[in-house]
Every structure is written in structure tokens, then in C-alpha cells.
Amino acid sequence: MGEGLAKEWMMDRSDEVIEAWQRQLAAMDAGDTAALAECFTDDAHLVHMTGYVQPLEEWMREMRAGKFVYHEVIEQGAEVKVDGETAVLDGRAITGYRSDGSGQAWPLRMRQSYRLVEGNWLCEESRVTLQQP
User: Fold this and answer.
1) Model confidence pLDDT, tens digit, residues 77-106
2) Which one of 31, 66, 121, 131 is CB 3.0 to 4.6 Å from 107, fit for a cystine?
């Protein structure tokens, strides 16, 4: 494969990872746990800003029970590094904001590891911290 084609393929792969992340954010925003679960591997986990490691199914249960409500998720951008069938996304988003001005805005940094599974980029791990100014 020529160098130009290799770079084009890698750019396409990065775009696919960003699209997967955007689907995840949209599902979080909508509170759609079925769509959200489809964005992750079965053995995925989250690492919260507190350091708590939470299995995917526990997070889904807590969302369905109303313990995790994102109100609105506003994407602020992401960078992706693809290495074959794995990728790392470093994304920024704000959540907790409500259009009426209520709520608490949380500026989040999401560092996510992805794996290509049957042609789909699925998140294996999501580490969330607060964005640094």
C-alpha cells in the first residue's frame, strides 16, 4: 500500500472512532442505555474521576434507575490515535448543563480505548477526569 493510501486509511479509521464516540455521547444525552451498551465491548468498564472502576452493566443499571443523568452532553472535540485494530481517543465534553441554565456543568476529559470488533469500533475502557484549564 502506498504511503498516501496508508495515511488515507488511517484518517478514515480515526474518523470511524470519532463517530463511535459521538454515538456514545448521543446515547448518554438521550439516556438510551440500549444504544449506549452497543458502543462498548461486553467486558468494558469505566474509571470514574473518583478512581472507581465500574463494570458496564452496573453503569447501565444505574442509568436506568436514574442515578446517572447527563442532562445534556456537549462535545468539545477529540483526537484519536489508531494502531491496527486498536485505538485511543482523547475527547472533551461538557455534561450536566441544562438549557434553562440550571444544573452543574462538568467539563470532562474522556480517554477511551477502542477495539475493532467485527467492523465496529467498540470502547473497552473509558477513563473520565475533569478537564484542566
Assistant:
1) 999 999 999 999 999 998 876 666 666 778
2) 131
pTM of this structure:
0.84
- pLDDT tens-digit series, residues 2-31: 554 444 444 589 999 999 999 999 999 899
Which alpha helices (H) appear in 31-117, and where do they start and end? 33-37, 56-64
Give the pairing of strands 86-95 and 73-83. Answer: antiparallel
Architecture of domain 3-130: Roll (3.10)
Return the domain boundaries, the chain: 3-130
Burial of 12 (0-12, 13-18, 19+ CB in 10 A): exposed
